[in-house]
């Protein structure tokens, strides 16, 4: 069964603790946290102090999605302040293999993210050592965008490689996830569903979560 990771980008930043606790009361134990630098993506979100603060009020797994240039400069600090899983964009670094090693040496799970236009071929030699691959199903930078349908083909391609090679990485999707797109994704091998605006914007979040998990 797929896991749902609420993306706190769509939570109420004046009441993060309340929103996190509410999700946890419905059984959520993993959160997706978007870090944007206004350089790699055209938006700025949150950074170290916010993650440090919410770490104190939650024991859930924190999946930190770095949409930043030069991730190698900051990865260790994200590990230190409470990230459990860290993903970086392959487009943002020339030292992906070293970065994976660094994240793992710090005892955390390492993920690689692909923008919609980036082919799987570009991470072929990293697939055997990675814990998860995040296929962006929108252009990164903003919540509330529409799912890019052609990414389904990319997900299937990745799932086939995983199957044929006996790899163990998980497949995560991020962007435009709702009941319909969640169904399409989980049917073709997705393990981790990131969901922002659809979940936080719902009147009955508990029901939406249950439906997404199903
Ligand atoms: C977009 C972020 C996503 C975002 C998804 O760049 O990486 O995590 O929160 O939001 P929705 O689910 O609204 O598309
Ligand atoms: Zn994200």
Spell out which ligands are present.
D-xylitol-5-phosphate, zinc ion
User: How far do the termini sit from each other?
Assistant: 8 Å
Kindly state the percentage of residues in helix: 25-40%
Low-confidence stretches: none
Strand order of the largest sheet: 1-8-7-6-5-4-3-2
> Which geometry do the CA atoms define?
globular
Whole-number mean pLDDT: 97
Give the helix/strand class.
Answer: alpha/beta
Count the DSSP helices.
8
Quantity of strands, as a count: 8
Query: Which series of helices and strands comes N to C?
Result: EHEHEHEHEEHEHEHH
* Biggest beta sheet attributes: 8 strands, parallel
> In angstroms, what is the radius of gyration?
16 Å
Strand content is 15-25%
Tell me what you see in this structure.
With 214 residues, the chain is α/β, with parallel strands linked by helices. It is 34% helix and 20% strand. It is built from eight helices and eight strands, in the order E-H-E-H-E-H-E-H-E-E-H-E-H-E-H-H. The protein has helices at 16-25, 48-57, 75-80, 96-105, 151-165, 179-186, 197-200, 205-213; strands at 3-6, 30-36, 61-67, 85-89, 109-114, 132-136, 170-174, 192-195. It has an eight-stranded parallel sheet. The termini are close together. The mean pLDDT is 97.
What's the layout of helices and strands?
Layout: E1 3-6, H1 16-25, E2 30-36, H2 48-57, E3 61-67, H3 75-80, E4 85-89, H4 96-105, E5 109-114, E6 132-136, H5 151-165, E7 170-174, H6 179-186, E8 192-195, H7 197-200, H8 205-213
Parallel strand pairs: 1-8, 2-3, 3-4, 4-5, 5-6, 6-7, 7-8
């Amino acid at each position: 069964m797929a896991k749902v990771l609420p993306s706190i980008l769509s939570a109420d930043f004046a009441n993060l603790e309340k929103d996190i606790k509410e999700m946890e009361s419905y059984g959520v134990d993993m959160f997706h946290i978007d870090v944007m630098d206004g350089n790699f993506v055209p938006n700025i979100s949150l950074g170290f102090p916010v993650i440090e603060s919410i770490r104190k009020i939650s024991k859930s797994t924190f999946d930190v999605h770095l949409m930043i240039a030069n991730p190698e400069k900051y990865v260790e600090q994200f590990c230190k302040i409470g990230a459990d899983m860290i993903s970086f964009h392959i487009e943002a670094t020339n030292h992906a293999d070293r970065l994976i090693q660094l994240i793992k040496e710090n005892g955390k799970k390492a993920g690689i993210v692909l923008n919609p236009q980036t082919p799987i071929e570009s991470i072929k030699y990293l697939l055997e050592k990675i814990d998860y691959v995040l296929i962006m199903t929108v252009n990164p930078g903003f919540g509330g965008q529409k799912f890019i349908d052609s990414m389904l083909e990319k997900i299937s391609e990745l799932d086939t490689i995983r199957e044929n090679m006996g790899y163990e990485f998980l497949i995560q999707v991020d962007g435009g996830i709702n009941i319909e797109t969640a169904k399409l994704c989980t049917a073709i091998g997705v393990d981790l569903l990131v969901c922002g605006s659809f979940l936080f914007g719902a009147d009955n979040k508990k029901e939406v979560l249950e439906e997404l998990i199903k």
